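User: Can you predict the 3D structure for this chain?
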Amino acid sequence: MSISFRAACVLLAVSLLWPLPAAAEDLPTFTPPVPATGTDVPYPSGAEGDARVVLELIVEKDGSVSSATAVEGAEPFTQHARQAVLGWRFVPAQRGAVAIVARIRVQIFFDQPAKDRLATAPPPAAPISTVAPPPSLGVPVAPPAAQEPPVEITVSGVRREVGELQLSAEEVREMPGAFGDAFRAVEALPGLTPLVSGIPYFYVRGAPPNNTGYYIDGVKIPLLFHLGLGQGVIHPGLIDRVELFPSAAPARYGGSAGGIIVGQTREPAGAPRGEGSLRLVDAGVLLETPFADGRGSALVAGRYGYPGPILSAVSPDIAIGYWDYQARATWLLTARDTLALFAIGSHDYLASRSSSPDPAARAQLVEQFVSDFHRLDLRYDHATTGGNLRLAVTGGYTSQGAAPTYVTDDSLALRLEFDQRLTASARLRAGAEGQFDKYSMRLATTAPGEPEVPAGAYPPPTNLGAAVHTDVVLRLSPRVELVPGLRGEVFSSSRSNEAPSTGRTETFVPALSPRLSARATITRGVAWLSNLGLSHQYPSLRVGNVPAPLLTVPGFPFGVHRLQTAAQASSGFEFTLPGKLVVATTGFFSHFSGLTDLTAMCFQDEPALVAPAAPPPGMITPPYVCPNNRPVSGRAYGLELLVRAPFSNRLSGWLSYTLSRSTREAHFATRTGGETIATVPSEFDRTHVLNTSISYLLGRGWRAGGRFVFYTGTPYSARDGSWPVPPYNAYRTPAFFRVDVRLEKRWRLGETGSLAFVLEGLNVTMSKEVTGLGLDCNGKETENGGFATTCQQSTAGPLTIPSVGIEAFF
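Assistant: Here is the predicted structure, written as structure tokens:
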């Protein structure tokens, strides 16, 4: 009697978690995944009897199976089936012409080989079914049994919020000048005004960088980018997508009166995987593997930067270094309950040579920015029918500063998040969170022989904040979606007074932040989107004692004298055109009050964080930095255009353009010792910002691309010596442009691996940027014994980053 076996695969229906039902004409055509390889599973050695196994698979955008979770079945059949299906390949699911991730269920029947059966036991009849691939694939498959019900597949997708701009890791990996980093590619989105070319900190629709909130999987962190070269602080292989909310973010995000940038990590892999890169300026690695038959998953990743030798050849007066790490472990407690531990950390160092005329001082490097942060997040997830519940606790340490001011923060945060489908047309999202921050400050010397300022000169605060938030996603009709939301917050702060006898100062400020967004499909391929909201934030301390652009990176919330508040609104249209081309136009308006910004300067009658040096004879003391910065009001408005063709095309491209104006109520010192207030363009108002890139797949694994970046200059005032004179901010620095290039050759390694040689350059034109801040000033005595100062505009760069390296994926 010959040996025989039979394994039948049936793709079952999976509940559609998202999006909610919509008219068919409103959505791009959906194509389910279909097998591209054989699906027979041999009968396991040593097993007995017949068996049925049900597995839930995650089919990735490249057609590989990244995860196989047992839903039903017994050992050894379950484990044997899991190992087999992880080697299957599919033609991936598609939404329109874009490959997407799909979750499907597979049913596998095992029939015991005939020689092991009793002669009297007739083999049971088991239906054989599979999904037939398109005829063009030429893959032979068995026809379905006549009695088999129709196969039904649904996909659990990621819903895009109204007003959200999203970048997938695959989409930006080939973007010239992004160095394969999804975070760095954010620079190419509209609404972002750069501080300095190559430094990825931005004014987001008029809000300064220290008003931007950064998140990784719900964990708030002080920054998402390494300062020196702008790489993300998370390994690119861990990132699934990056989401930008330029204004009026969903209610679950708060505490930031500006934009929100969110990094979402990939789900734990169901099979071992890894990535590695070695370049002129840094090296990185990521390794991930499941264990315990897929119940657990472990990941480690990190990157170390060594750009010093490269940059010293271009800019010998600058020193830069950075590194980061990530580690994640997950454990499936039950079929619905998961426990995860996530650790991330980052270090940045930027220093430049002193501009002092003293040769001894010039021999030293002055720290322009030093940053360290570490986060440890423990989370518990419970999957409900049609939703999820998450409870998480996060411990953190942060240190940021620039000579002579350094601030540290020991923090503890709790958050509860609930997401539940209520009906076919309504979904509830709610949560609560609390944040405790204990700050400390160190004021160091800036030159040899100077006394160190005691930390008690300005006692740092202890902050305690809490919030509850909720919104409801309502599908009013197949073409109309409305999302009302509300966030209630309390901001509390206390600190010791400088005079011990006066005790402590305590403040408690409540705030309500309503949000509303709407999406309406006008006709096939045309949608109208609009959102508005109110946001609040602690006042921010700008570390450092000079108004240099590099010191405006996300600062610390420092006390509660007056909240920073932003009222934001935007509205626009999105067009889906033939050739997978998407065009979006948006108009926006933002009004800010109590804002911490570069224009907020202290004067002689205000308490100083660092006392100014004694002025020369006959001169009035110029402004210096306030401990909390003087609050100001302002507004921003403009138009944005985004045209994108996915990088999955042979010829692909990207264009974003922002036409905007940002104004502030600014304070200017006068030579007589007073001050004047005027509404002027803000220090980083740029009327035009343009990003355009193109990439072409040459064939045989070669791809080439380039990017062109252009923006107009920033405003500044004419000066009488060191004193600004009206009309204030009436002049502009010259416009700036740069060109980035990328060339790649990729080879396939096995079924899923690849090796690539990458040649990339940022600012290959070696363009220098003129900035109105960071002035080069020289003073000299006049004939009558007075003192006169003249300042010249300074230049940044050329900041150019060459990159030659190899990348490996397996």
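The chain has four helices and 47 strands. The first strand starts at residue 6 and ends at 12.
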